[in-house]
Write a structure and sequence with these properties.
Layout: H1 2-6, H2 9-16, H3 24-36, H4 40-52, H5 58-64, H6 70-82, H7 88-94, H8 100-110, H9 116-125, H10 134-141, H11 147-157, H12 162-178
Helix pairs in contact: 2-4, 3-4, 3-5, 4-6, 6-7, 6-8, 7-9, 8-9, 8-10, 10-11, 10-12, 11-12
């Protein structure tokens, strides 16, 4: 905690070096660094540590997520989504974010999840979709190779946003050509 108060980026990063060997203390250090550090490199090092700890790192992520800058939220979601453990619980929790950039990354991540998890994540992240999400929703829906894709496209077609309707029409046309 004193390292965080010192505002010395190098010391904060150094303190995290072996934090994964410290058990709960290391996890607390990562959580507080991610939440309180003014330095992006230190926050990202802490987030990387939490992601590397997989399930054990989730408390640190949950503790810091709401206070992270948008860029760090996007970074975190990208790291979780590309990890093999694909913690869908964390991704679903992040879907409540109002940040358009975070939601775009989540929608893209939905296309990488298997089974119904991908469809559910896409639905959660695309909630109240506005025109800024139209293309990424349509692009991701094309990755689903079943009737689930039709459901997503149908939901988009019922949108009141013209940009979403246009994106859905383009995705539907592309789907028709592929089949």
């Amino acid at each position: 905690i004193q390292l965080l108060q010192s505002d010395d980026e190098a010391k904060q990063i150094e303190a995290l070096k072996d934090a994964d060997q410290l058990g709960d203390e290391g996890l607390m250090l990562a959580a507080f660094t991610a939440k309180k550090s003014k330095h992006a490199k230190a926050r990202r090092k802490a987030l990387d540590l939490a992601v590397a700890l997989r399930q054990d790192g989730l408390p640190a992520i949950a503790f810091s997520f709401d206070s992270l800058p948008v860029e760090d939220r996007v970074y975190l979601v990208e790291q979780v989504a590309k990890d093999a453990f694909n913690n869908a619980t964390l991704l679903f929790a992040a879907a409540k974010s109002d940040d358009i950039e975070v939601r775009k990354v989540l929608i893209k991540a939905a296309g990488t999840l298997t089974g119904q998890q991908g469809l559910l994540l896409l639905s959660a992240a695309a909630k109240d979709a506005d025109a800024k999400l139209a293309d990424v929703v349509a692009e991701t829906s094309a990755k689903f190779n079943s009737d689930d894709e039709l459901l997503i496209l149908y939901m988009g077609a019922k949108s009141s946003e013209p940009a979403i309707q246009i994106a859905v029409l383009k995705a539907t046309a592309a789907r028709t050509v592929q089949k």
